[in-house]
Amino acid sequence: MRQPVILDCDTGTDDAVAVMLAALHPDLDLLGVTTVWGNHDVRHTTDNTLRVLDLLGSSGVGVHPGRNEPIRPRLEPLPSGRADLAPTLDLPEPVSVPGDDAVEWLVATLRSTTERVSLVATGPLTNLAAALAADPALVHAVDRLVVLGGTHRAAGVTPYAERNVWCDPEAAADVLSAPFRDVLMVTMDATFSAPLTGRDAARLRAVGTRAAQAAADFVDARIEWYRRDGAMAALGGAPLHDPLAVAALVAPDLFTTLPAAVRVELEDPLTYGATRFALDTGAARGQLAVAVRADHDGYVRFLCDVLARG
After folding, report:
1. Which residues pair with 196 in a beta bridge?
2. Which of 96, 122, 209, 218 is placed for a possible disulfide with 13 were both Cys, Cβ 3.0 to 4.6 Å?
3. How far apart are CA 131 and CA 124, in angstroms?
């Protein structure tokens, strides 16, 4: 049986590839995509998601626009926008139109489901926190929650905090403290351990499908953007973060994980949004785990195999 999944994202280049994987993988049944603010305004993340699904011929998957600001006021102001990132993906304009409000759709879908649904969140956790505030019992409808977020040792948007959590630390704290039965956090430690190179982009392009070619273009663009980072420039590579969160549902062997407890820093302005992991504390392995490494070669093979279906 295919695993029902909902993807919650702030679609830019790496989220776009995550959407492709969720829509194309034969073992996943993508019920819908909810969009959230993050790298850009939610109108752009929604438009980008529609572009990706239309490219795949998957316009039957609903796209539901969600929250456009943090769930509660932040401890410190958030810089507006990402002038360093184009707000619109270089894909044909969408023909499909958005669906209902994301939070309302999440609540209705999880209340009515007859089988547990997996949630994959690759942006700020605002939509999920709002849905849980509306109905805390929704956790019982979730089989697994995979969060692309947090960092253990790798630096994020600040020396302490990864961007998705940093954008809305209060929402992250609400979601990560909720009693989900199984949570995996795919951290920057994992994503930066498996950066993609120009050679990997060429391998994707050789797959030949529209999905794989679009993914290769996104990887090339990310490599160019990451040239401002000395280590990435020397490697000629860039992390492709968000698709790893989707891969975790169906290819768990790609990851090195550790059982953990996590706390999101909400009070210290200097370390605001930091994810404080307590590893090897006897936390049960079905509750929360943190991915700290990923298998580069296996990841590239996975991308090529799935995107070949596009």
Report:
1. 238
2. 218
3. 13
25 is a catalytic site residue: no
* Per-residue model confidence as pLDDT tens digits over 143-197: 999 999 999 877 778 888 999 999 999 999 999 999 999 999 999 999 999 999 9
The single residue of 40, 44, 64, 241 carrying the catalytic annotation is 241
Contact present, 256 and 268 (Cβ < 8 Å): no
Question: What gap in Å lies between CA 130 and CA 71, rounded to an integer?
Answer: 7
Mean pLDDT, rounded, of the chain: 94
Helix (H) or strand (E) holding 38: none
Distance of alpha carbon 291 from alpha carbon 301, whole angstroms: 19
Residue 59 corresponds to which tokens in the numbers above? 């316009």
As a whole number of angstroms, the distance between CA 207 and CA 137 comes to 43
Q: Which CATH architecture has domain 3-307?
A: Alpha-Beta Complex (3.90)
Strands in the chain per DSSP E: 3-9, 28-35, 62-65, 117-121, 142-148, 183-186, 196-197, 237-238, 255-264, 275-279, 288-294
Render the burial of 187-221: b for 16+ CB within 10 Å, e for the rest: bbbbbbbbbbbbebbebbbebebebbbbbbbbbbb
| CB-based contact 38:45 (threshold 8 Å) | yes
Where are the domains positioned within the chain?
A: 3-307
Q: How far apart are CA 61 and CA 30, in angstroms?
A: 7
Strand, helix or coil at 95? coil
| Cβ neighbours around 259 below 10 Å, total | 17
Token readout for 211 is: 């999905």
